[in-house]
Each structure stands twice: as structure tokens, then as C-alpha cells.
């Protein structure tokens, strides 16, 4: 086994791609410097605004913009927890996005494995159909889906509407098409010798999938997982209709800082930062896999 | 080509392994000679697909069918309580939506055109910036890892947090954008309105590009890794300079990546609801009246779900044509390239 | 093979099960209470206080009191305004909603048309102490005329002119303006001292509607014909909208920056002493929470064209307020009615309206000395003598959207420095009317 798990780290690390070994010309270096500086500014300015505004008292934030805050306060970071039940929304979002991610990855791996490894009638129809659901406008099926969930709930007693389960189900299908398609590409790049060796060793097809192919496809799976997570994490439209106070997610819940009375800009920024930091950190930790996974999966 | 989708150009080998097509050795190859490397095994593949199929049916296809039915009904507030009783309106909703002489049709057409222009610009800019950045960061230099992490931040931020920050910056009286453009650089005679009026289009485009280009960057960066270094070396030996290498090797090699990337970006941007909704609320300014919010307003704010569904179906048909056309063109191009 | 298939089936079932149920683990609290537990009620409250959490703190003790009295436990959810109408809509569509809910009183007729709300006929009204307990102005905004009301008034509010004492004194203005001409004249003096004159929410559709409705009244016009058909672009309504938007474009009293306001930024501007005057409904609790003490501002009736506020063309406010409604699908009708009775009882009316600085729509509670402060007197008089209900027609929410958007676009024109003429107003209103559903 150890022999088979080692090998597949496709492209990203195995082929050291790069342009000519000679030093790039000065014109390129300057273009690069200018472009990257501009881009860094473009990306960083809003981030700086978030950070600096989150540290200002409300009157300063609602006054004219100034680059340097006149006084710093951590007050917004205290207040955010009492203005809206941020902790609950955060947990809801984690549960929903996390479950949707896990489910989406499992379902996508199974489907991608079938497409990648087996010949069967309808293969092409399946992949095209699944991919084409990517273009459905959410507006078209928001109300019908909602009605469907309610009716399923009435008929079977499974609470889909208003529950996190319904939202999980919805989100997982949002990321499913692109995930399946990305994984097909990735699994195709995992050498078939691996499955065969496992089959010869007496594993069933599923054994081969989970013991051999999945471990070999970790970068691809991580890429898909990150994508699925981000899709579920930021969704507003369906969450605003399908959740109630107990199950509300962050994407919708953050709107609670803009109330009947005032827009608590500093708290919005503080809360956005607090909820973003873990996600951004996780994202950045996984970005190495992400690039590797995309390299072999999506872009081949 | 025997791969599952026209978008993928997968070959059944691991890249860089240099192994011959592994499928040649599989037992399945004997049974299915036309699809080397893929095994025929009765029901198993269908079982593996079942979860995905059931979920797609439940969440996408069945509701979409219901939506199509709704589009033929006169589904206003009087009937939403029991929409089965809503009278059939035949093609009435469609006729109203495409009657471009009447205000409803006009508004829809206007919104559609705004969306098309917006989407094309946004996708083009996202792709351009993403590709330029990826090419710039192909060679390693000090701080490259840090920059790469930084560039992914807009993609990793929750949509609401990102967009609301831009709303904050685009405010007329207190926003950063006017502070810089007007107060500090004196570029404008008076502070600009970004969230209402004609400039709202610029604001929307800026936010969309800010959020979208890191994805293009990520994908192109991954695509660059697949270009064999030997190609560059060969070109360098031929005396091609760096700019020529980019033009002759990098960009052509990225073509398959770009075909997929552009389509995906197009569909996401076209259907994007979150950005305009958070940016402008439920009544978007005319100049930035994207179709998704327009339909949302038609159905949820004015409670005419029949008309809203009809508009959605029209939108779907348009996207179907675009996607189909794109797939057709790209797969044909590829087939000839493969031969 | 068999074992393979079994394993495959197992995996499929597992993943489906994962997807369908185990993932969530959340329980639905949104659904109406079921038959088995008539001892509970679900109540959707609207966001009336500084935040949703503040509302919970205000309401929960009262709900506990109700539970002690009646044994019925009320599950409270405070729904933000951004979500409330959508939530009601989806509840209506699915039949899965709360038992009792707050609605903006201007939605009454629209929601009445869906048939989802319990009609308050004589028998139902009797259960809460009779129709006569409520003041007429509030009852006028509970549904289409001639039909049983779809809801019962809960909190009443009216527009008033809030003015900053110091800014007006500094500008040498002795008393707040009583007519629009006075306001414009005072505006010049205030602007000369470098202050903004009048706050407005140019991108807030509802605020736009409330104001142009009153202006239309003052021009003797209406946006609907007597039989309830849209008539948006008649000479009177055009003049009304032109006058309102003209406060920015022509009279320069509304600062241009307010054209993009939609989230009550104008209140915060006023509380910070940036703007001299503000037209708002029941703003005192809000101003207090933003650090503006009650002695820093005065409250006066909203200006009229000439003379003093009164009925007819002297109307100076819409009847603002919140109604409480019962969802027809409730399984606990008695409990729901009892809860409405509790919420509209004199005691609760005093407590809740106090907390939200609104006026009780219940006669006996309104007379309580607790609502005798000068600010309350102005609001109470306005409600009693010079306010009018927004059109109680089924298409009211479409009206708010189309005309509110038209006014928003006109404000955007004004902010961009474009002239707002009778012709441009008429064009905008005509377009709005053509977007109304044909009936």
C-alpha cells in the first residue's frame, strides 16, 4: 500500500514548470512590479477599511472617512455578540456549510468515480445534465423548491423547510455539478494501476475507491471541498427565505447590524472580520492543495 | 474523444508519470474496446451516480419543472395561498415579458442588456487581471507565497462582508472612494454618487471584479503548472524573448483552461444575485438593474410569481443557447486539434 | 459481486441519509404549532427597537407574563424588516407560518387579499374587547374598506417634524416652520450657518411613499381612484412628487447626499447635530439611543401648504403603525385570540408603546398620562386629526415598489444635478403605473 499512496501528486510538484532559465528582461520586471503593486492595493484597501473601521467608535465611522483613526476602541468587538446572536449564526453557518461540504464531496466522489472508471450507457448525458444545472437561475426554483420542501415535510415528517437539513441539501447541490466535473478530471489523472493493484489485492471497487483512489486524490478533494464550502458559506437568497431565527446563517444574520435605528458600521466590520478570519485562515492553509487539486482536476 | 464532457480533455494517464495509457492493461479494455480503460460493470456505476442524480432531481430539476408550470399561471397574491387554483394564463406571462413596446417588456429588455454588458465586462476584466497576475507570479520571487495568499482573500471573504464593505466605501458623503478621488486627488469637481444613478454600474463592476478575479487567478495559476518547462526551454533556444514566450506558449497552452474558466465565470456572473442585492437592496438603480434582482423584484416584491417564472424561463433558455453554443464551438475546435 | 453491490447500496444509502437528515440536526421552529400542543403559539414580532436583541428583551418578560396568566407558551421570533414580507409570503404560500404575527399596517390590504390572515369580524373583535376600543385612524389602516379587518392595531405612529433647538436658535429662527414655504425660507438661514437643513431617505421606497402620499393629499390628489385603480400620474400627484423631490433639486433643503440614504442614516445625521430638521415617525427612542437627549430637540407637526394641520388637504402624516394579525392556519385559534387580547390590553399597550415611543391605538391606554409629554401630544393630535391611511388596496405593496422606485430615481436625478421637471416626474409616474399588474 505504502508504495501506491506515495506517487500521485500530479503536476504541481512533479513537473517544475517555469519559463526560460535566463533572467527575465527589465521591461517584464517593471511591468510585474507595477501590476502586482496595483493589485495588492486593490485587494488590500477594502481589507484595511474593514480593519480600521472595526476599531473606531460609531460616530467616527459615520463621519467622513479618514485613513488614520483618531481613536481606537475594541468596543465593537464586544458589542457584536449582543447586538445579534452572532455566535449562534456562526455555529449555524459552520454546521450548514460543513455538512454541505462533506455531503457534496462524498456524493461527488462517488459520481466522479463512476464516470471516470466505468463505461455505461448515459455517461455523457449524465455529465452534461449535471453540469447544465449550474446555469439555472436561483430565482426560478426558489419558490418551487420551498414548496417542495414544505410538501415533503407534510408528507413524511422530515423537516426540510426552516431546518438546517433543508439548507444543507440545497447548498450541496449548488456545488455538486462543478465538484463532480472537477473530480472527474482529477480522478482521470490518478493512475488506473492503483485501482487495479487494489482489486488484485482483493478489495472491491468501493474498497479500491476509498482505500486507494481517495487518498491519492486528496488535493483534488480538498479543492472541491473548499469550493463547496465557499459556495455554501456566502449564500444569501435561499438562506433568507429558508431559515428562521434558530437556524439563520451568517450570510443573512450579518444584516442584523443594520437595524431599524441605525447602521452599526463598526460592528458590521468587526463581525465580518471575526467570522472571516477562521475561513480565510483555513483557506490559506489549504491553498497549496487547492492549486494542486485544480491543476490536475479543473484545468486539464 | 471519449471523455465524459466536452469540456474536459482528460487522457487516462497521470501527468508527469510518463506511463503508457494505464487503461490498456485493464481487464475492462477487452470488453469495451471503444472505451479503453473504462470497465463495464452492470449496475454499479448507476448506483454510484444515484445520490447525485436523486439530489439534482430533488433540488434542481423537479423545482425547475414546477417553475415552468408556474410560468403558465396567473400566480399573483390572490392565488399564492393555494397556487393550484390559480387560473392558467397560457402564454400571457411570456407575451407580457417580451412585449418590448410596453414598460414591463422594456424594463426586462433593458435589464437583460445591462446584465449582458456587465457580465461581458466583468468576465473580461476578471480573466485579464487573473491571467496577468498568474503569469507575473509564475517565476518565484521573494514574497510570492505571501502575495498569492493575499490575492485569494477576496475570494475567501463571505460575500456579504465583502460587498457591505464596498457599500461603506462607496458612500457619497463619508466614503473612502470619494475621499480619495475628490478630497485628496481633486479628480472630480464634486463628490460622485456611486450607489445611485449612472455610476452605480461602475460600482457594481468594481465589486464584481474585486470578488471574481481571484478565482480566475487561481485557475490560471493551476493551468500554468501544466505547461511543460521544456516548451519554454525550446523556445528560449530558438531565441524567443520572454514576451514572445508568453504570447506563443503560455497563452495558447491556456486555451482549454480558458474555455472552461470563461464559461463558468460567465454563468456565475450572469446569475449572480448576492452582489447586486447587498449592494443596492431590493430596488437596484436602472443603470445597474441586473436580471436576477429584476426577476426577484418582479416575483417577490410585486408578488407576481407567474410573470417572474416566465422571465426566469426566458433567461434559462438564453443561457442554454449560450452554453450549448460555447460547448459546440469549443469541442469542435478541440476535436480538430486532437486529430 | 454480491458483496460489492451490497457495499455500494450501503454507501448510497448512507450518503443519502447523511444528506437528507443527519447533516442538519436542526429542528424547525418556523412551523405553526401542531394539534398536539395547543399550549404553544409562535409569534413573529417586527423589529421595533434598537436591535433584534433589544426587542427580545422588551417582549420576553411580557410573554412570560402571558404564559403565567394563560398557560400558553409563546415562542418569539423577531423578524428583521428586510425579511418580514418574504417570510410572510412564504408562510402564506406554504401554509406553514406563525400563529400570530406583526405586519406593517400599510400591508394590511395586500395581505388581506391573499386570504392568509384571520378576518376580524364582530365575533373575533368581541374576543379582544370590541372594535370600539381602538381609535378610528388606526382602524382605517387594517384592510380594504367594507371588508372585515385583516389585523388589529398594535402600535400607532405618526410623522412629526423633529428640530434641533440649538441649530435653529443659532440661525435666528424662533419657532419651527409650520408651512413648506417657511421651511424653505428657514432653510436658507440654516444653510448660511453651514448646517444641513432637512434629512430624508431618498433610496428608501417606503419613506418615499409615505411622503409623496402626504404631499398628494395636500395637493388634493390621490394615487388611486375611489374604486381602487392606480392613477399615479394625475396633475395633483405630479405636483406632489415634484414638490417633494424639489426640496432637494430646487429648494436645496434636503442635502444631495441623502439621495442614497436607505438605512435611516438621516436619523443618525440628525442625532449628531449635522441636520437641523427631520421628518420621522416616533423617533424619540431612536434619538435617545443615539445619544441625543430629549431637551436637545423639539417636536412639531409636519408642515402643510398653508394654515394648520387638519383633515382633507391639511393632512400632514400617514397613519403609521404596526398591526397584529392571526394566521388563518393556526391550530390554536383561541390561544391566538387570547394573545392578541393580551397584547392590546391597557397594561401591555402602555408598557410596549412606552418602550417603542409609539402611541397606543387603544383609546383608554392612549389617555394615560404616560403619553402626555409634549412630543406624544403632537403625535397623538396628528393621529387624531390630521393623518390619513395609505390607500387600502390589494396592490399597495406593488404601489410602494413602483412609485417608491420612481421617486428614488428622481432623487438620483436631482442628486446628479439634473432638473426635476413636471414632465420628467410625469414620465416616471406613468412608467410606474404601467408596471402595475393589469386588473
Automatic annotation (TrEMBL), chain A:
Keywords: Cell membrane, Membrane, Transmembrane, Transmembrane helix, Transport
Domain annotation ABC transmembrane type-1: ranges: 90-286
Family of the protein in this entry: Belongs to the binding-protein-dependent transport system permease family.
Keyword Endoplasmic reticulum among UniProt keywords: no
Membrane topology: Multi-pass membrane protein
Transmembrane spans: 34-51, 89-113, 125-148, 168-187, 208-230, 264-286
InterPro entries reported for this sequence: BP-dep_ABC_trans_perm, MetI-like, MetI-like_sf
Protein localization: Cell membrane
Source domain of life: Bacteria
Region of interest (Disordered), residue spans: 1-24
Organism: Streptomyces tropicalis
Keyword Acyltransferase: no
Ranges annotated as biased composition (Low complexity): 7-24
Name of the protein: Carbohydrate ABC transporter permease
Alphabetized CDD domains for the sequence: TM_PBP2 (cd06261)
UniProtKB/TrEMBL annotation, chain C:
Record's signal peptide: 1-22
UniProt entry tagged with the keyword GTP-binding: no
PROSITE patterns reported in the protein's UniProt record: PROKAR_LIPOPROTEIN
Record key words, sorted: Signal
InterPro entries: Bact_solute-bd_prot1, SBP
SUPFAM superfamilies the record matches: Periplasmic binding protein-like II (SSF53850)
Name of a matching Pfam family: SBP_bac_1
Name used for this protein in its record: Sugar ABC transporter substrate-binding protein
Organism field: Streptomyces tropicalis
